[in-house]
Amino acid sequence: MSRTHVGLKRPINEDNYLARPEVGLFAVADGMGGHEAGEVASARIVEALGLLKAITPATIVETLEQVNADLVALAHEGEGKRTIGSTVAGLLIEHGQATSFWAGDSRAYRLRGRDLQRLTRDHSLVQELLDAGMIDPERIDDHPNGNVITRAVGAAERLRVDCMQADAAPGDLFLLASDGVTRLMADEEIAAALADTPSLNEIADGIVWTALRRGAPDNLTLVLVRLA
Fold this sequence. Notes:
The chain is α+β, with helices and mostly antiparallel strands.
């Protein structure tokens, strides 16, 4: 189950998503706001992952590295310095395992019962400041540099993609979301939204409407996957 929305402030939607349930591959890509052609970057990521045949964590990382090289080369064409970049967060679910992969601040979650676990760790300036003990957790939401990410596909000559494995069991519900969702909903709210509504359609619609009611200053995209 997937949703994407331009939001209420942006002229275009730079988000893209991928859902290949037949092979257990899912992703959300958020074109970098404020940069040229963010929608091109997110579309390149989704297209490349959509064409991938031999699907393993290693081939996913290799594919994203190739997209990174292509975007850097594209950005160097013409005059002037520019960046064509996108975050990515995805899941490969197979054989009772869920491998999350990401670069940037789009996120992956797993809900088991009422327990929500974040499967990604933001590549962002605010996360680095938090890890270093330089800011309090209460200051995260209103920090002036809250939109500064430290890693993205296309942002640098070399891309490092983080991966993490978690077990995947029947009944587990996975969520991928761009920061247009997670900036407006705390993890506790996300957990309640996922746990209290049985229908994936209703969950997806409820998350979108919550973001819209709160002003939706950014594009927002989500992918929901429930294991049978």
